[in-house]
Amino acid sequence: MMDLKTYGYTQIEAMQGGLLPGNGSLPRERWEHDVAQQHENKYVQDKTSYLIDKRAQNKTNAMWSKQTKKKRRMENMNIHFETLINALSRQFKKDIISADCQTKPLQGGTVGNVYLVTGIANTADGVKLPYRIVLKIQQKWERYSDPGSWRREYDLYASDLGATFSDAFRWPTCYHAEINAEENEFQLWLEYIDGVTGLDLTDDMYEQAALELGRYQGKLYAEQPAVLQSLTNLSHADLMKNTYLHYRSWPVVYDYIRSENCEFPQHVRQMLIDIDEHADEILDRIEKLPLVLCHRDFWVTNLIYADGKIALIDWDTSGWGYLGEDLASLIADEADIDHMVENYQRCVPAYYQGFSEYADVPPIANHCVYELILLSFGYRLVEWYLHTEDGDEKTKHVRTLQKIYEMKTTPVLG
């Protein structure tokens, strides 16, 4: 068993020696954000602190202090007056002639910088309007196997994809988008949505998110609007499969669950081993499911519930995927552990119901959400367990695996 502590490796030494997968992933780094980077890639090694999971930046000691670097960027950030006025004029649909502003960084922004800009805008007829708007600044960087992802959100906002959303399920409105002449940095001025997000989401909100996701994907699948054919910068359908195969080839996690030193309950270990032994058959089943437009980062912190509606942020990993991929993230990706099984029971039928309102859907009895959860997060949870020294964190990861195990024998409702 290749336990890094047992063998005397530090996190950085393991990364440099190629013992960690990809770019030397840190304990909470999201696989969607940096999959299978090769340790030889010096650029990525030098930029590791930018690739840390959104949750890791508050839970893990990064190699560089991101807060210090963000503060430095804030001090050096100049907001162009004309750009701000243009964005506010579109936001209010009025002639804005002046505005003051204050900025503060928003949580997140691991591969970009996100700020809340607030102040008072003045209209041409003398009305003062308080405002809040989000500024997202993204610089070019290269994600393994997905070099266009850094600018994907800009490309999507520049397309007609926004017309495919409904009032009940949408992304934040973009008031201004621009990319520089060198095409290595873009800005998005986005609607600020104040609502419930993260672990504050209730079970009913989970279910509604699943229903609206199903409706959105089903509608696009059935109607095949022309905009889908025009979107050239999307992640590929094999991303989930390739990520799983990469993790399976990594001895640190693969050998651990098969070793005498593994501290997981035997039934949890066997669950992970079984998925490996039947992976070809399972992947074949999944690849027969409808191919749909996926967000690919559909976890609770990217969901905002406001006024009975769902808004979805951070579209840079979006692309083609299989029915249920996003639902797997909603249920298992650092979600509400205590209610994971209940949310699984409720969200799977809600998702299938939403999809079936627009398109034929395979029988719910043949859904692959449980398998998608294991393929996407099984080994990831093992990695997180091995690379944290926090006892509570270790317990959380084992509890999550236990809840996934319970899903196998839990019938979905409906």
Query: How does CATH name the architecture of the largest domain?
Result: Alpha-Beta Complex
Largest sheet descriptor? 6 strands, antiparallel
The averaged pLDDT comes out at 85
Kindly report the name of the CATH homologous superfamily of the largest domain: Aminoglycoside phosphotransferase (APH), C-terminal lobe
Instruction: Using the CA coordinates, give the radius of gyration.
Output: 22 Å
Helix fraction bin? 25-40%
Q: Which structural category do the helix and sheet elements fall into? A: alpha+beta
Quote the beta fraction.
Answer: 15-25%
- Number of domains as seen in the coordinates: 2
Query: Distance N terminus to C terminus?
Result: 43 Å
Write down the overall geometry: globular
Order of helices and strands: HHHHEEEEHEEEEHHHHHHEEEEHHHH
The first-level CATH class of the largest domain is given as: Alpha Beta
Looking at the structure, the CATH topology of the largest domain is: Aminoglycoside 3'-phosphotransferase, Chain: A, domain 2
Unreliable residue stretches: 1-76
Query: How many runs of DSSP E, i.e. beta strands?
Result: 12
Contiguous helical run count? 15
Give the oligomeric state of the chains in this entry, treating copies of one chain as homo and distinct chains as hetero: single chain
Could you characterize what this model shows?
By secondary structure, the protein is of the alpha+beta class. It folds into two domains: 78-140 and 146-191, Phosphorylase Kinase, domain 1 (2-Layer Sandwich), CATH 3.30.200.20; 194-408, Aminoglycoside 3'-phosphotransferase, Chain: A, domain 2. It is built from 15 helices and twelve strands. The protein has helices at residues 11-16, 42-46, 66-76, 81-92, 152-158, 203-223, 226-230, 239-248, 251-256, 266-277, 279-286, 325-332, 340-356, 369-386, 391-408, and strands spanning 96-99, 102-105, 113-123, 128-139, 169-170, 174-179, 185-191, 196-197, 291-294, 303-306, 309-312, 319-322. Strands 1, 2, 3, 4, 6 and 7 form a six-stranded antiparallel beta sheet that branches. The protein has a four-stranded mixed beta sheet with strand order 5-11-10-8, covered by helices on one side. A hairpin with a 2-residue loop joins β10 (303-306) and β11. α13 (340-356) packs across α15 and α14 (369-386) packs antiparallel against α15. The protein is globular and about 70 Å long. Mean pLDDT is 85; it is low at 1-76.
